[in-house]
Amino acid sequence: MSHISEAIQSIESQLAGRARLIAVTKTKPVEMLLEAYNSGCKTFGENKVQEMVDKSGQLPADIEWHLIGHLQTNKVKYMASFVTLIHSVDSLKLLQEINKQAAKAGRVIDCLLQIHIAQEETKFGLDEAEAEALLRDPVLDDLSSVRLVGLMGMASNTDDETQIRQEFRGLKALYDRLSAIQRPNVAFRELSMGMSGDYPIAVEEGSTLVRVGSAIFGSRF
Fold first, then answer.
1. Angle at 208 between CA 7 and CA 162, to 5 degrees
2. pTM of the predicted model, to two decimals?
3. Which CATH number fits the domain that encloses residue 160?
């Protein structure tokens, strides 16, 4: 058994069905992705649209592709026909563009609102007030080709597990509060939090999707 297969089996056993594994495949060659696929992992997360488009054309059609990196409006059109879930919606303008391109493709695209929970200023995302304002914006009623299904957040890059846990716990509390908002295209069911270094804590705090790259494939090239 390869190290990729072993890693996927190990992570899946830790998750024990509490959360789904997204293999973060950015910068990894197609051969590695195929190895993960043949090991039973069929949900891949990419940071860049062009890389996702290129790889999707070379791999089996039943793979779920998740866009987990920062997304520019002018790139949405390239993946609108096949992307399964966009984790990184951080503005109404972006959501409107996703809706426009999804409608052209004859699809409804599921999206997560990215929430800024880390102490670093470098990470993208909405604050709690901005997220609630977006979910209550009347304009949302016009966006019938998108569905907001939850939240995504990245904890601070720190070894302080108490801080990481507090950040994840805060995001889960926000998720619980915002999931009470009733709109035709809002149906919360996913909480995307946890990466290679902190996914066990994230699962304990209520994550439903973990984004794991280096723990499966090794360090980035």
1. 80
2. 0.97
3. 3.20.20.10
